[in-house]
Amino acid sequence: MGLADSRDVAGYHRLPCPRGSGPSLAGPAGGVGPTGVPPFGETKLMIQPNPLSTAHESRRPRSGPFAWILNLFSSMWLGVFWAVLLFIYCSIGGAVPQIRQLPQLEMTEFEWFHWWPFNVLIVLLCTTLTVVTIGGL
Known about the structure:
The protein is mainly alpha-helical and 137 residues long. The protein has helices at 51-54, 65-73, 76-95, 97-100, 109-112, 116-135, and strands at 12-17, 44-49.
């Protein structure tokens, strides 16, 4: 059985089970046959839940102000949003010098990419990527 066949829908793994043990889908009960021992060399396919894939579902929901911020930054789509904003900011600063050379701004390209909005976008993107990565473990 290859890697693609080792996982089934909803985080279940396929495992060998005794021949004649009934249904081929075994839940948390295990689906052990009447004798509990497979005949020598003969097995069939049994599916059991993967404990690693269901572990995150049993955790308590987070609550409180810190949890709200943690839930916000654990969204992959927020990271995509920050990346798009960063791309737009860099595009304006690098490709449209008329914007950064307005009388209100009067910046060189170096100053544009060391200004506080650029630094804030970088910090927000890195924070979101870190929280999403650590939260997914």
